[in-house]
Specification:
Elements: H1 2-26, H2 34-45, H3 59-76, H4 85-110, H5 117-123, H6 129-138, H7 144-168, H8 174-193, H9 202-209, H10 217-235, H11 240-254, H12 259-284, H13 288-293, H14 295-310, H15 312-316, H16 323-333, H17 338-349, H18 355-383, H19 389-392
Helix pairs in contact: 1-2, 1-12, 2-12, 3-6, 3-11, 3-12, 4-5, 4-7, 4-14, 5-7, 5-17, 6-7, 7-8, 7-16, 8-11, 10-11, 14-18, 16-18, 17-18
Protein name: Cation:proton antiporter
Transmembrane segments: 7-30, 60-77, 89-110, 116-136, 148-169, 175-198, 219-248, 268-286, 298-317, 329-348, 360-379
Family: Belongs to the monovalent cation:proton antiporter 2 (CPA2) transporter (TC 2.A.37) family.
Length: 405
């Protein structure tokens, strides 16, 4: 019975994923990212509306979807970028966001609006790089100074909160959390050097010979790497987002053979199946009743995401980007969701976060995904010369989550 219900839930999710590009195509003037349709569709088929399924019955698929989202984000990031000027500016920007968050949440805690000081403060400093990257890629925004700066800012907006979660919100204490973080990072570092042992040996030749055959050797080893680091991170009490992000960084270092084809395969598996499951399930899991009971809280956190995470970009990048690009950076870096889900889960599990705030934070994250990237694209299009518009955006791939035709 449970298996049948899980399959029914997957069927409902697959329906939303299949319909999403059609919905986007029918309203091209809105430039709607598919992730918006995933979230709204998930809310409609979820337990609180149509009740076509229960996301808890497909939790392994949801975790794999989250894993693929951050695997591809980690693969896209060149970690050397974090040591260059864009990385330094990204750290300054995140530090400014953290200072703002601590001050704002301190005031909210004093008034009784917030109880979970640390989770809420960290939530306001996050950036959903995994969501933003496909949108940037589809709209040719990853090149030049803007592209490198927004990727670096997004990476720090994901990595820094993950590190803080591991240290300050570990169920086993801060020292154990820090030790676990170091241990998982060392495992990832060792894995990044492991393929050197295969150079010139028969195992490597076998892997390369089978990468495009029915054995799909490189793809299978990539999935093994992802699952291994997800399990390692979970066993050490860390969020699986960290394991997935590190898996992407390791894969970028050792991916053998035809890397372009490997990227195509990963995009097909991730964006074609697993990643839509994560976003639709996130929509299904929305606590709509708590949001309806306290809609003002959603608006408060939505505005705070923009103020705390986004506005520092206007100052930090004043010498690196023109004003229009700084506005785009403000909107894109304020986009948040996956880590908000993780932080609210931790806050509810340890009893420090009010249920209405947990729902409001996730609702604000969903709203940020719906509003901020679309607004950023609108600012980009308004600032582009009309003659340059066709060349700036490659044809949309309907299988891509960040489609904006």
């Amino acid at each position: 019975m449970e298996l049948t219900y899980g399959l029914s839930t997957l069927l409902a999710i697959a329906f939303v994923a299949a319909v999403a590009p059609i919905v986007v195509g029918l309203v091209p003037g809105l430039h709607l990212p598919q992730v918006v349709v995933f979230l709204v569709g998930g809310a409609l088929i979820g337990p609180e509306v149509l009740d076509w399924g229960d996301p808890a019955t497909v939790e392994p698929f949801v975790n794999l979807g989250l894993g693929f989202l951050f695997l591809l984000a980690g693969y896209e990031l060149d970690f050397r970028l974090l040591l260059a000027a864009p990385g330094r500016l990204a750290v300054i920007g995140w530090a400014a966001s953290l200072a703002l968050a601590l001050g704002v949440v301190g005031v909210l805690a004093a008034t009784g609006f917030v109880r979970a000081f640390v989770p809420v403060s960290l939530a306001l400093t996050t950036t959903a790089l995994g969501i933003v990257l496909p949108i940037l890629r589809e709209n040719a925004m990853l090149t030049g100074a803007f592209g490198t700066n927004v990727v670096a800012a997004g990476a720090v907006g994901e990595l820094a909160p993950i590190v803080a979660i591991a240290i300050f919100l570990s169920a086993n204490g801060q020292f154990i959390g820090l030790a676990s973080l170091v241990a998982v990072a060392l495992v990832a570092l060792l894995l990044s050097y492991a393929p050197r042992l295969l150079r010139g040996r028969r195992v490597r030749s076998i892997m390369l010979a089978g990468e495009h055959s029915t054995t799909q050797t490189t793809l299978r080893w990539t999935i093994l790497l992802l699952l291994f680091l997800l399990v390692i991170a979970a066993d050490f009490g860390l969020d699986i987002v960290l394991g997935a992000f590190l898996a992407g960084g390791v894969l970028r270092r050792w991916a053998p053979g035809d890397t372009e084809q490997l990227e195509v395969k990963l995009d097909a598996i991730g964006y074609g199946f697993f990643i839509p499951i994560f976003f639709v399930a996130a929509g299904m899991s929305l606590d709509l009743r708590s949001i309806a009971d306290a809609p003002a809280r959603v608006l408060v956190f939505f505005v705070l995401l923009l103020v705390v995470r986004g506005l520092p970009a206007l100052v930090v990048y004043r010498r690196s980007l023109v004003r229009r690009e700084r506005v785009e950076m403000t909107l894109l870096t304020a986009t948040a969701l996956p880590l908000l889900v993780a932080l609210t889960h931790i806050g509810l599990a340890n009893g420090t976060m009010l249920r209405e705030n947990a729902a409001a934070l996730v609702g604000a994250g969903v709203l940020s995904v719906i509003v901020f990237p679309a607004a950023g694209l609108a600012v980009r299009r308004r600032g582009e010369p009309a003659s340059a518009a066709p060349a700036a955006s490659p044809p949309s791939d309907p299988s891509t989550i960040g489609e904006a035709p």
